[in-house]
Amino acid sequence: MKVILTGGGTGGHIYPALAIAEGLKGQPGGADILYVGAKKGMENTLVPKAGLNFQTIDVSGINRVSVLKAAWALSKFPFSIRQAWDIVKKFEPDVVLGTGGYVSFPVVLAASYRAGCKTFIHETNAKMGLANRKLTARVDCNLLAFEEAAPMVSPHKFKVTGSPVRKEIMDIYYKRKNEPFDFKNQPFNIIVFGGSRGAGSINRAMMDLLDRYANEDFQITWVTGAVDYEQIKRAVERRWGSKLRLNLKLFPYLYEMGAALAASKLAVCRAGASTLSEIALLGLPAILVPFPYASDNHQEKNARALKEKNVVEMIIDEFLDGNTLYNMIESLRYDEQKMQDMRENLLKEAKPNALDDIIAAITDS
After folding, report:
1. Same domain, 132 and 175
2. Is 327 a domain residue?
3. Are the C-beta atoms of 143 and 320 separated by less than 8 Å?
4. Could you say which of 160, 184, 212 is where a domain stops?
5. DSSP state letter for 39
6. Which of 13, 34, 118, 243 is deepest in the core (most CB within 10 A)?
């Protein structure tokens, strides 16, 4: 089977595609996979590192603030579609799957005109992104992480599969499933993180929060992001030095994220789709602070979809400060039954078979 995967711009589009690539390579007979990305996307680093064949097209996202920049991006689309068509024509794929981001639009669109080629999109968010919304009627099947996205597509053209996650998270999920796990008696450790670059608003609230928790006997793992790390590290050292009783672990980036999540009882984080899939599989209660500038405000919609099911708490970024965060953490810290209910409800939302279901949809086509 020959497959083109495409998606880029953010890790939320790239990592699911990479997981799908691994799943396809593990099928009987394997798969010949080509990944198509944008020339300036972060996929330029991540995809070759994963060992996949990689090609690029010249395409830019539509700027929603500047009319001139938006017009420039739109003027390039006919050329990017032509580039995509040339790649599709030369590679002759049996399947093309897009995971979102502006680069996926011309590639999936071009493939939809090719006879004998099945086309799919995988949508990780509760509300479809712009590229996927424009493609939904043209593809053979829409694969959805959230059931809330289903009203946006034809009733006969979608499957709710969930979103694939990294192997280390799945390993923890299956270990906990097969061995007794006493969540109730876990230490009250907290993990705090933003996106891959951190989150300034969360970091500022955390500096205030440390004043409240300086003498507490538990652990906070705080992933600041590379931009703020040195400044925060110096500020913590100036303010407390060696007098901090709290076990504070500070990182600019954490490669062993799965182990850190597994060792925590509460998360404070953004509401990206990949993050939500992971905390659901781990049954990790969370206070979500949606990134306010995400396209179509999709992080807030993700968070609200789970908040309405009573599986998470949420603070709007605009209203986030140390006092608000402290009060919410404390309300959960001393309500063990609510924490347990959140954990159980999160596990009900988990989709451990997401990758298998996506692979099955592709290979059965």
Report:
1. no
2. yes
3. no
4. 160
5. T
6. 13
What is the residue-wise DSSP string for 230-256? Answer: HHHHHHHHHHHTT---SEEEEES--S-
Q: What is the DSSP string of 145-182?
A: S-GGGGGGS-TTSEEE------HHHHHHHHHHHHS---
Paired tokens of 300:
């807030």
CA gyration radius, the chain: 21
Same domain, yes or no: 152 and 99: yes
What is the helix, strand, coil percentage profile of the chain, to 5?
Answer: 50, 15, 35
Give the whole-angstrom CA distance, residue 280 versus residue 290.
16
The range of the structural domain enclosing residue 73 comes to: 2-160
Q: Is the separation of the CB atoms in 207 and 235 below 8 Å?
A: yes
φ, ψ at 289 (rounded to 5°): -125, 90
pLDDT in tens, the chain (365 residues): 999 999 987 778 898 999 999 999 999 888 999 999 988 778 888 899 999 999 998 875 554 444 444 444 455 567 788 899 999 999 999 999 999 888 899 999 999 999 899 999 999 988 888 888 889 999 999 999 988 888 888 878 999 999 998 888 999 999 998 888 888 889 999 999 986 666 889 999 999 999 899 889 899 999 998 889 999 999 999 988 878 889 999 999 888 889 999 999 999 999 988 899 999 999 999 999 998 887 778 899 999 999 999 899 999 999 999 999 999 999 999 999 999 999 999 999 999 999 999 999 999 87
Residue 364 domain-assigned (yes or no): no
76 with 213, same domain?
A: no
By residue count, the chain amounts to 365
